[in-house]
Specification:
By secondary structure, the protein is α/β, with parallel strands linked by helices. The chain has two domains: about 140 residues, Aspartate Aminotransferase, domain 1, CATH 3.90.1150; about 250 residues, 3-Layer(aba) Sandwich (Aspartate Aminotransferase, domain 2). The protein is built from 14 helices and 17 strands. The protein has a seven-stranded mixed beta sheet, with helices on both faces. Strands 13-14-17-16 form a four-stranded antiparallel beta sheet, with helices on one face. Strand 8, helix 8 and strand 9 form a beta-alpha-beta unit.
Length: about 400
């Protein structure tokens, strides 16, 4: 059976809006996805029937809030194929990576090495640079191939007994390239290194089975995965989390506090200091439930059909240059391009006049832009609710930009 994109679209109220006289063609999902009614309703239900702090109270509202919060953790765990107590709620994917860089990083010593790649988001570069400044670790970088993939042929040269962690994007937020995880894990484990994946661009495209990947840490953001802003997830192997010191101190993350000494709660509490983002966490749990109900085999085929339609259409516009894998194999629905003689921001503004929302700039991946000698690109990022009308509106806008801006 074909994918019923119309039924999916009906679950997202914003997609039926007319804004400034134009329909919404939302193709900026790599920055933030839209939110379905199931998530909106879950957050509204908490705020209107159960709003209270979690963990501390014994009154009915507090107990309802705590139950909803922990149920959300269980839904996220089910989505990732892990146990609930392995799931840490954070402020986002950036916060999750920073947690690992600070907490796991505090166990490293001068001369230990972290391996990143040339295509990483700044959120998977800067925290490690801060760790380098604090502790004297070293950072190595895997180069990127011409088709926008991490060049895994360089792993034997870069991995040594000094490498303690390999931290890479599961899917590139610029090229859409899917990482060959098995090759990375096999090579990393051979030298005793841990592996973390930045899953910000992969998690919005269906449930995962993290234990089968053989990795040690996984991070993703709620707002890219059809959930609220201000919430994210770090998953870690229990033995690693148990060995890591807290990232922040405060309420909820303690065992016993005296002025002489403080003991820590076990994970995940140890890493969730203070009042958490309760409503957003509940919304993320609802988003994970919503994603698990979708037919992702059909959804992925649908998304890849849109990618092919987009790439075929862009190649017919004189002066366009595409970045990333040329085929649909081992990639996800992110496509970046440039238009000769036109700044990416001008392309994006033209597209906005057609009702099309995209992202333009360096996409928080300046080292990758340097690799291709670019100031930036125009990025199209798709979700299951996108359809042919979105792609056709974009192609019409790009053709108009090519005719009028050069």
């Amino acid at each position: 059976m074909s994918f019923d994109v119309a039924a999916v679209r009906r679950q997202f109220p914003i997609l039926s809006e007319i804004i400034d006289g134009r329909p919404v063609h939302y193709l900026d999902n790599g920055a933030s996805a839209q939110t379905p009614l199931a998530v909106i309703d879950a957050v509204r239900h908490y705020e209107t029937t159960s709003r209270a702090n979690v963990l501390r109270g014994v009154h009915r509202l507090a107990e309802r809030a705590t139950e909803a919060y922990e149920n959300a953790r269980a839904e996220v765990a089910k989505f990732l194929g892990v146990q609930p107590l392995e799931v840490i709620f954070t402020g986002g994917c950036t916060a999750a990576i920073n947690l690992v860089a600070y907490s796991y990083g505090s166990l490293l010593k001068p001369g230990d090495r972290i391996l990143l790649s040339e295509l990483e988001h700044h959120s998977n570069i800067v925290p490690w640079q801060l760790l380098r400044a604090r502790s004297g670790i070293e950072i190595d970088m895997i180069p990127v191939t011409e088709d926008g993939r991490i060049d895994l042929n360089e792993l034997p040269r870069l991995l040594t007994s000094k490498t303690k962690l390999v931290s890479l994007a599961h899917v590139s937020n610029v090229t859409g390239a899917l990482l060959d995880i098995r090759t990375v894990v096999t090579a990393a484990k051979a030298v005793g290194a841990k592996v973390m994946l930045d899953g910000a661009q992969r998690a919005p495209h269906g449930p995962l089975d993290l234990p089968s990947l053989g990795i040690d840490f996984y991070a993703f953001a709620g707002h890219k995965a059809y959930g609220p802003n201000g919430i994210g997830v770090l998953w870690g192997k229990p033995e690693l989390l148990d060995a890591m010191p807290p990232f922040m101190g405060g309420g909820s993350m303690i065992g016993r506090v005296t002025f002489a000494e403080t003991t820590w709660a076990p994970s995940p509490r140890r890493f969730e200091a203070g009042t958490p983002a309760i409503g957003p966490a509940i919304g993320l749990g609802a988003a994970c439930t919503w994603m698990q109900a979708l037919d992702w085999t059909a959804a992925h085929d649908h998304e890849m059909g849109l990618v092919q339609r987009l790439m075929d259409g862009l190649q017919k516009v004189d002066g366009t240059r595409l970045f990333g894998p040329a085929s649909l194999q081992n990639r996800y629905p992110v496509v970046s391009f440039t238009l000769d003689g036109v700044h990416p921001h001008d392309v994006a503004q033209t597209l906005d006049s057609f009702g099309v929302a995209v992202r333009a700039g360096h996409h928080c991946a300046q080292p990758l832009m340097d690799r291709f000698d670019l100031d930036g690109t125009t990025r199209v990022s798709m979700a299951p609710y996108n359809d042919n009308t979105d792609i056709d509106a974009l192609l019409a806008g790009v053709a108009h930009a090519a005719r009028t801006l050069r």
